[in-house]
Amino acid sequence: MAMEPVWNGVLTCDYERTRPQASHLEWDLYTEALIRWPLILMDDPTPYGQLRRTGIVDIPEPTHRDLTSTWHRQLASLDYTVNLITRATHDRDVAGAALDRVDAARRRGDVGDLTRVLAAATAAFTRVNATHIVNWLLPEDHWERLLTDLFGSRDAALTCLSALQLPATPGHILATQIQLTHQSEEAIAADIEAVARQQEPRTPAADLIAQRTRAARRREAWTTAALLAAAGNDQVVTEIRAMALLLGWAADSEERRKELRERFLTAAHAWCDLIDTDPSRITAADLQGEDRDALR
Asked: pTM for this structure?
């Protein structure tokens, strides 16, 4: 996702263009999360722009500049970074638990309970979805300049940034494969077969684990190199530590957010099936209880 160029002092996020196959519900989820990200991620109630229509948000350039400048200053603080990651991880856990309750109600075919828990899951996922801004609002230009100064090479800076963009924890399939080494042979055989059926393209588990290990070592080496280059300047050392944490968290956050998004959309479609409603007509407000009778 990228901003449209400034026009008449306004930036535009157009999900209709960047996510043309998305439903109105998905556009709702993205635009609401985008407008609320300052509140969710830094406790600032200032809305990030205004909704022009479903799927499109207009952001006055001064609002964009003020909010992102404030956030970027906060991201240089290790304490803020740790707090941000802790809160965002908690939000993911809350959303995951809410979707577990949704899945349980769906399996029971309990429409009333499903409606209630889906409303809670919608609110919980909106908080998680606010982190999709890491795709374009992190201070990567500043980090590139900082690392270029430290290494004396833009190529080295870009290589370092690339190496640091490794998820903090393995993806779901890879985590499953790593855990296989601690199971019985029978369990290993069954799990490998199950994972292999789901995996596209089919890559041997050992290869995936080796790739992850190499990437983790590369990340560690470049983090160490950046810290050594910054040695003697405590402020820069702190910023490098925060940057390394943020880049790992951002990559991890995107993986987990997408997993939760797919679970949420699947649940929303199941709810539509149970109440005989067209999924293309529903909005986030409908799932949270507003104007539900109008759907029938």
From this structure: 0.80
